[in-house]
Design goal:
single chain, about 150 residues, alpha+beta, Alpha-Beta Plaits, two-stranded antiparallel sheet, 5 helices
């Protein structure tokens, strides 16, 4: 594999503006209230009065060795050799949800046709030399994207 693209996230810079989540939904033409290919979550720690809140932006991590790909009996999930992006072949997906059971971040989502959807790193944008829309719209630079070797 020549590259391994991925996301980097700095929770100290995230202001929970949901720009990444909203941009992703709009770019992928997903209706409000439906699946989320990227989601912003709140993480709390400590005990009152010393409670701390941080946020994280979560999507498919495009794992080096994707457990979802191993779990998929239909072979619907595959990893691109040239850049490490993990994709789904909707024609092969049967909606068995085996991928969902093994994913460490619950990235697999299922649409109204019971077909698995997940972050595709905005492959259409990457092919044009652009960043994924979530990283491109993050106003604080909390979410970045690039070759993990760099």
């Amino acid at each position: 594999m020549s590259k391994q693209y991925g996301f980097s996230f700095d929770s100290g810079r995230c202001i929970q503006c949901w720009s990444c989540e909203v941009a992703c939904k709009q770019w992928h033409c997903l209706k409000a209230g439906t699946i989320k290919l990227r989601r912003v979550e709140e993480v709390t720690s400590g005990v009152f009065p010393d409670v701390k809140r941080t946020f994280k932006s979560v999507s498919c991590m495009h794992c080096v060795e994707p457990p979802c790909m191993e779990a998929c009996l239909q072979g619907a999930i595959y990893k691109r050799i040239e850049d490490g992006i993990v994709l789904v072949d909707a024609e092969k997906c049967t909606g068995c949800r085996a991928c969902s059971e093994v994913c460490p971040v619950q990235a697999p989502q299922f649409d109204e046709n019971n077909i698995m959807r997940k972050c595709d790193m905005c492959l259409d944008r990457i092919k044009k030399g652009q960043k994924p829309i979530c990283a491109a719209t993050c106003p604080t630079g909390a979410l970045t994207w690039g070759d993990l070797k760099e």
